Amino acid sequence: MDAGPRTSTLATRGQPSRWLWPLGNALQLAFTLAWSVACISLALLVRLLTGSRRLPLAMARRLWAPGLLLGAGVRLRVEGAEAIDWSRPMVLAASHQSVIDVCVLFRAVPVPLRFLLKDELTRVPFLGWYTRAMGMVGVRRGKGRAAAASVERAAALVRGGATLATFPEGTRGKPGQLGPFKGGAFQVALAAAVPVLPVAIVDSGRVLPPGGFRVRPGRITVRFGTPIAGDALDEDRAGLATRTREAVQALMAGH
Fold it and tell me: Does residue 11 surpass a pLDDT of 70?
């Protein structure tokens, strides 16, 4: 006899969550946009006034990324960073599940970070101004002259001492899954004669899944592996990509 009222009470208690989550996400989206516009504008101003990229890139690590992670309710855990010699230039090859991965890497890597990104992102108003001002490299897909030139620009950046972050899957995957690695990032590493650092970003896709803006607070873990040195004379980019993917897969599994 009590089942009906109890069920009704539980249903009533559960009803607020139907609109609380969308409302919370709408507020988080508004904060994300406002915070990003403010931080990017400040970074561009600092870049203009100082002529340096180092300070505005440090602002991304110490101001922009922490603010967005805090707003999303992210508890960030970083493993293996203390074993890396961050004074050496290298190419990071990270797994990719969510747009929040950019914030995660900015926060987890203790040195100024550049990104290898899709060329079309460099042409997006406002965002494109920032990526170009910070020395990010847009890569054209394919095997034409434009693609080769973008790889050489990225290699020159790394040879100059930069740490370059890449998502070699080329797109966001499902939580726990790792797609095939494309060769562009590894061609950059071979051309610059620097090691590739495998990086696993775990559970970011559960916090902010692809498609829409549905944030669910939680923990994201970043695991840094052992740098992998490629040899331009003895190994092609496909071989280096295979070795790196195996390392990232092991890191995702907690090994």
Answer: no
Q: Which domains, and CATH codes, for the chain?
A: 73-252 (3.40.1130.10)
Instruction: State the Cα–Cα distance between residues 225 and 197, nearest whole angstrom.
Output: 6
Residue 165: is it exposed, middle or buried by C-beta count within 10 angstroms (0-12/13-18/19+)? Answer: buried
- Tens of pLDDT along 164-214? 999 999 888 777 789 999 888 999 999 999 999 999 999 999 999 887 788
At 80-102, the pLDDT tens digits run 999 999 999 999 999 999 999 99
Q: What's the CA gap between 114 and 194, in Å, rounded?
A: 15
Q: Which residue has the tokens 């897909």?
A: 141
Quote the CA–CA distance of 69 and 44 in Å, as a whole number: 21
What 3-state DSSP class applies to 39?
helix
In whole angstroms, what separates CA 109 from the centre of its chain?
Answer: 11
DSSP single-letter state for residue 238? H
d(CA 46, CA 113): 17
Three-class DSSP category at 187:
helix
Alpha-carbon span 197 to 84, nearest angstrom: 9
Q: How many CB atoms within 10 Å of residue 90?
A: 23
pLDDT for the residue 255: 67
Element (H, E) at 79: strand 74-79
Q: How far apart are CA 169 and CA 181, in angstroms?
A: 5
